[in-house]
Design goal:
Layout lengths: L7 E9 L4 H11 L4 E9 L4 E9 L10 H12 L2 E6 L4 E7 L4 H11 L5 E8 L5 H6 L4 E3 L7 H14 L4 E4 L8 H6 L4 E5 L11 H8 L3 E8 L9 E8 L6 H24 L3 E4 L2 E4 L2
Helix pairs in contact: 3-8
Length: about 290
């Protein structure tokens, strides 16, 4: 039997690097009876950005979880920090978006059922009904909002309304084959993770496997990234590759790529919900 994970708080910090940050944050936790379970940090020497993830046990800590953000604020002011406080036991509410291809959705739903991902899925949204059977199998509400070029603004507003009704904290595009508009991303109020079926920045846009085949590449990849208004250029969370050969057809590339897409997207979702990803500029730091 797997031992129950200790309840903890994850503290994420982003500021410009200065002497004494780690000592000051560690001292704060120590002074209030906390025990540090995990700590990692990184300084970008070109930009002087300092990013840190520190996890500490709630047992014995003298400040209630809901009061930690306010208690930490005086330290954040000294170092001009942006910071987040996340209880590790809190499950993230995830809205899934999918079109016709079901492999990434099915993989995430099975991981969820096995409790490998500490998430709740209140809604699956699609522009087609092809994946409805998966939602029915896992007893998750499935809503179809068809979309055309002319109806896209109205359709996106319908999606936004549903996501907000369900208090969604993360949107996962599990092969949702529509480009989300800048207006949608500005209004959604939470991060959006997309899986792109190539090793970005190569072969952006449509039909990347066909593009890869025509160029005769020897590896193909998959990339999970945060969606931004710049198509396929959002901060990258996770990538992986697989070798291919001259005998492989486009269909072979698609088949092999599906496996990568599932794995890469699942890793990205896990790292996000475990609060291991910090974004700065166009880049990320991902703490293992």
């Amino acid at each position: 039997m797997t031992a129950r994970k200790q309840d903890s708080i994850v503290l994420l910090i982003h500021c410009k690097d200065r002497p004494g940050i780690v000592a000051r944050v560690s001292g704060f936790i120590h002074d209030f009876g906390g025990n540090i379970l995990d700590s990692d940090h990184h300084t970008d020497e070109e930009t002087n950005d300092f990013l840190m993830r520190m996890e500490f046990a709630t047992e014995g800590f003298e400040i209630p979880s809901e009061e930690i953000p306010a208690a930490f604020k005086p330290i954040s002011r000294v170092y001009d920090m942006r910071y987040e406080v996340h209880p590790s036991s809190r499950r993230t509410r995830v809205g899934m978006m999918v079109s016709k291809q079901d492999h990434c959705l099915a993989d995430l739903l099975q991981r969820h059922r096995r409790d490998e991902l500490q998430i709740d899925i209140p809604a699956i949204i699609s522009n087609h009904d092809a994946c409805a059977s998966w939602a029915e199998l896992f007893k998750i509400p499935f809503t179809v909002y068809p979309v055309t070029k002319e109806t896209k603004p109205q359709q996106e507003q319908q999606v936004l309304t549903l996501l907000k009704e369900h208090r969604v904290e993360l949107v996962v595009m599990a092969r949702y084959m529509q480009i989300l508009s800048a207006d949608f991303l500005a209004q959604v109020g939470c991060p959006v993770i997309n899986i792109h079926h190539s090793f970005l920045p190569a072969f952006i846009g449509a039909n990347p496997y066909r593009q890869a085949y025509e160029r005769g590449v020897k590896i193909i990849g998959a990339t999970a990234h945060y969606a931004t208004q710049d198509l396929d250029e959002g901060p990258i969370i996770e990538q992986d590759v697989i070798r291919i050969g001259h005998r492989d057809t486009v269909e072979d590339l698609v088949r092999k790529g599906r496996d990568l897409e599932e794995i890469v997207l699942a890793r990205a979702v896990r790292r996000h919900i475990e609060r291991r990803v910090l974004v700065y500029g166009r880049k990320t730091v991902v703490f293992d």
